[in-house]
Sequence to fold (213 residues):
Amino acid sequence: MIRILIADDHPLVRRGLVSLINATEDFELVGEAMHGLDAITMTERSRPDVVLMDLQMPRLNGVHATSAICRKLPTVKVLILTSFNEEDKVQQAMDAGAAGFMLKTATAEELVESIRSVVLGRMALSPEVVQAIVQSKRQPGTIGQDLTDRERDVLKLIVDGRSNADIGAALSITLPTVKFHVSSILSKLSAQNRTEAAKLANKYKIVPPSPEI
Fold:
């Protein structure tokens, strides 16, 4: 029997998971936790094979609870089950020691198979999560590569804190042309404003740093 603990603050979600576990011949429910602290305490007490862990919970979120469980009880497998698929949450969950990451849109069959997989020591990842990981790995190497040389010149001056008028004077271009380039830069970097564009430029080294004086 695979002994399972559910950690989720939504009663309807827990009810659905309980029904799935009870309907699966080789699964056994050992408890239901309503927040992260409960999950840690109940895991220490019941020693399940698998913890189905939500990410967004009160008192202590799923990432921190996962980290504590994996540190204290390394034989327990934590399978993250959430409605979120952002790259940062995927990476945080993996760094915390999660054995898998499934979205709540997964079918009952997919979830059952994932639980059995992590018990056997395999990593369980939904296709959406695999895509998120791939995108997160690609982003640092590709962001900003579609900028033209002139746009890089403009971005360099934005990073230096120069105004549109200063940029126009420095590059000998008109103010409308500067505004056009700035708009194009923001679009290509998916940045909301100049400050965010400058942060992205520094983070991904899109333009060379200014020399220290």
